Amino acid sequence: MNFKISIPVLCMLVWATACGSKEKPQDNTNKKYVISDTMMNMIQLDSVRTSTVVDQLTLTGSVSFNENNVVNIFPRSSGQIVSTNVSLGDFVHRGQVLAVIKSADVAGSYSDLNSANADISISKREMESAENLYKNGISSEREYVEAKQNYQKTLAQANRIKAEISINGGSGATQSGNYTLTSPIDGYVVAKNATTGAFIRSDDGKNIFTVSNLSNVWVNANVYESDIPKVKQGYSVKIIPMSYPDKVFEGKIEKVGDVLDPENKSMAVRISLANKDLLLKPEMFVKVIVENTEGSMATCIPTSSLISVDSKNYVVVFNAKDDLQIVEVHVIKKADDLTFIQAEDLKLGQKVVTKYQSLLFEELQKY
Question: pTM of the full predicted structure?
């Protein structure tokens, strides 16, 4: 059987087939990115606000003793060290014996005291005898007065020797000439210049022990001449030890020097610092960050909200779950956890994403 199809009908079939197989292109121009509930629970938001521009200056410094809490212990009198009871770095309590010293001067003073006590006994008997004779009319008043004065002189002599022993030997001195050196404060033995058997002199100006309470230390730093205006007494500082780079100690500038060091043209500053866990040791090197908060006010955002791409900085602004924007910001200054930006970049009170903002940034670029 032969079928004939006219040309007009064939054209209509081809056109209908072509139209039925062609898909309409998808239009994304009006679609918005909507943040999911799961992502909403993961992100964190913070507000655009104003804050004082913090001017930071980084210095290098070193830890030293707080001289108000340091005691240098000197020998009371010359002699020989019989024993030392502590080692360098030991913690000692107030009144604890550090060393025992045998001194000829102390032994001689005790010998003089014994003689003085004997003189007291003799002069006392003479005074009592003169008093009885005077009362019985046998001797004159003058003889009684002289005996009494002699007795008082022997008492004064004994008291002088006792004071001498107290100065040269202290309360722990013995008649054999031994005396003890004790710690006047609670603290750590940070210097020791004593060995058993060594001879020492009280007039050479050398201390035997140094005890310091390390619960508070000083940090000394040098400020170059060009940076002097950035440092003032009372400014807050952050101390980061080289030994503990993850630890930050906070303190304040306690003293600013009045003169420059003639060699390096720098000015010394001193920071008083609480050393609660005793991590800071004298002679440690530290980084000192001085914070000047006397500057002007400026718009700021959390540093954690920044997204850096191709040398530009962006943030994700959150208005609603279906209204997020990528906004370029121009950084003026960074200070710790705050970044100061130009005022026209963002409005005060706007919310910016501070966690998982990079993921949102990538998704928003698709729309």
Answer: 0.56
What is the distance in angstroms between the CA of the first residue and the CA of the last residue of the chain?
Answer: 60
**Could you tell me which residues are beta bridge partners of residue 272?**
218, 252
Q: Residue type for 255, please?
A: K
Residue 131, phi-psi category: left (phi > 0), alpha (psi -120 to 50), beta (remainder): alpha
β-strand 187-192 against 351-355: which pairing, if any? unpaired
Domain boundaries 37-54+297-364, CATH class: mainly beta
Is the pLDDT score of 26 beyond 80?
no
Query: In CATH terms, are 37-54+297-364 and 57-67+213-292 the same topology?
Result: no
Cβ atoms of 286 and 62 closer than 8 Å: yes
Q: Where are the domains of the chain?
A: 37-54+297-364, 57-67+213-292
CB atoms under 10 Å from CB of 206, counted, come to 13
The DSSP code sequence of 31-47 is ------HHHHHH-EEEE
CA 303 to chain CA centroid, Å, is 26
Segment 249-257 shows an average pLDDT of: 91
pLDDT category of residue 316 using cuts at 50, 70 and 90: very high
57-67+213-292 is a CATH 3.90.550.10 domain: no
pLDDT tens figures, 89-114: 899 999 999 999 999 989 898 899 99
Query: Is the pLDDT at 19 greater than 70, yes or no?
Result: no
Tokens at 139, concatenated:
């001797």
